[in-house]
């Protein structure tokens, strides 16, 4: 049985001010509604990232504020239990991680915003984290790797949205 370590709740202020904060902006040549359908699909995350090996929506549809999900990296190497505190259908989702399967994080949050753009959609994906003092030096040192990994997730979503035809079943 997995041991879970509780995390403190994060909010919008934390997303703006966290010591460890990564923001990616990607432009997609498809409309926000289509990107949203890929972002909230049953296979969200695992279908566009080889590092994320499970993503289980633990709340029934229709999703909204309070929706929960468990995301697993590396076939169980680490996992997060997430609770969405913002769900603006078709435009923005924001979650705080409520617990992690590994110690070291104090707070963790992500925000994904889809804005209409003349050429399609502007995707902005923000990651924010606060770590324990023991993990802080490692996270500071590994920022270039974390930026590359999270950039890959944002680009993976973009490629999945462009490769998955509009109107295809999810």
From TrEMBL:
CDD domains: PYR_PYL_RCAR_like. It comes from the Bacteria. It holds the Pfam family Polyketide_cyc2. Transmembrane segments: none annotated. InterPro entries: Polyketide_cyclase/dehydratase, START-like_dom_sf. This is SRPBCC family protein. The lineage of its organism: Bacteria, Bacillati, Actinomycetota, Actinomycetes, Mycobacteriales.
